[in-house]
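> run fold N-dimethylarginine dimethylaminohydrolase
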Amino acid sequence: MTDTSATSRTYLLCPPEHYTVSYAINPWMDTTAPVDTALAVNQWKTLCEALTEHGHTVHTIEPEAGLPDMVYAANGAFMVDGAVYGARFRYPQRQPEAAAYEKWFRAAGWRFVAPTETNEGEGDFAYVPGPGFILAGYGFRTDPRAHAEAGEALGRPVVSLKLVDDRFYHLDTALAVLDDETITYYPQAFSASSRKVLRQLFPGAVIADEADALAFGLNLVSDGRNVFVNAEATGMAAKLESRGYRAVPIDLSELKKGGGSVKCCISELRL
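> ok
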């Protein structure tokens, strides 16, 4: 069983006031399926309340009309030690989000590094505090050349991991950091060589199965003890509890229609 303890975190989120599914840029998006924006807002508020109730600080960015995916704040940038590596989105529908997030980070006074390579922020970057390195995904959204750029911008070593299943188009749909040393991941979302790397680096990882991944159970946020996880992912919650974590289920069924859940909605501000 994992010896877990919580640490207070600081997060950035964006209200889904303009959320809808008006285009399809991942396998989860269906433009013919109805979306209840009011319900999405209420579910998002429940997430914010859960974070604050567990001692975390929540900042919000103003949503902009015409950017329905801006609610997925994880994609807006990636921060380590107060330095921010900005996003550069692959699809034109989301590209204006980068400027909105850059404006927010610059106004907050953090050192912002503008990218030249395509990357989708914390969607494809995960920070492991213990060893102090970055896990970086590629294959569908982020250009692998952005990995070196992020490493240079943030002064951290980067481990590149290839995603091979388009259902798990971002790293944060297939892998999550649970505490300073432990991760959880779905092996089949990665290439054979990337699976080997993950086994070598994290022999004590919590291994997810396909049902966990399809329920967005890996799109989670952990404070080292409490794990905020999609309510649908009951199997994942049980795995986490068996390892000493406390699962905090959050219903984000409306936001899952856009291809995201808990982690997609949260950018961690690592000061």
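The chain has a mean pLDDT of 97.
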